[in-house]
Specification:
- This protein is mostly helical.
- It has helices at residues 2-10, 15-28, 32-42, 48-73, 78-82, 99-115, 120-139, 145-176.
């Protein structure tokens, strides 16, 4: 089924989408766009705790993906297996799960969980950006749909764990703080 979905996606190919999805992948390279977000959030005292949570989520998702799961599964990338033409520099490493999807959804989900009530449109935009980055990996034939799905779910799970741990830590600190 992974292969059939990639073949269906190949029918979308056109120069404007090539440029768009190459740009989306570039933004996800090394978590670039998410590091810029962390930098912006860390510039204000009020949003520094969020910057830390997003940063830890991003790093944890990347480490689990790159050092944990990719070496474990060693899945060949679809452009190599099916000889799809690629329009970006050939990525190194294995396919499962998608690191771009994991890191993008880790950062976007952490922001969503922390700000969805106060800034729903901004959170929706971040989740759509994460989705576009993840989809770009399919469009460019460097990941299978199951790679992207697994990476996305991993990123969400890691961010959820980080947010909950931060909430628990903040709650325990409030309880232990003496009342003056």
């Amino acid at each position: 089924m992974d292969h059939q979905i990639l073949v269906a996606i190949s029918h979308l190919a056109c120069p404007p989408l090539d440029v768009f999805f190459k740009s989306m992948t570039f933004l996800g390279n090394g978590g670039l766009i998410w590091l810029l977000l962390i930098l912006c959030l860390s510039g204000y005292r009020r949003t520094r705790p969020t910057a830390w949570i997003v940063c830890i989520s991003l790093i944890a998702a990347a480490l689990i993906t790159v050092w944990g799961l990719k070496p474990l599964f060693m899945r060949m990338r679809p452009y190599l297996r099916y000889h799809f033409p690629i329009i970006i520099a050939a990525p190194t490493g294995t396919s499962f799960p998608s690191g771009h999807a994991a890191s993008s959804f880790a950062a976007a989900w952490a922001c969503f969980r922390l700000y969805h009530k106060r800034h729903p449109r901004c959170c929706a935009a971040l989740l759509m950006l994460a989705g576009a980055i993840a989809f770009s990996r399919l469009y460019l034939y460097v990941h299978y749909p199951s790679d992207v799905l697994a990476g996305s779910l991993l990123g969400i799970a890691v961010a959820e764990a980080c947010v909950r741990l931060a909430d628990r830590h903040a709650f325990s600190r409030k309880k232990d703080t003496p009342a003056f």
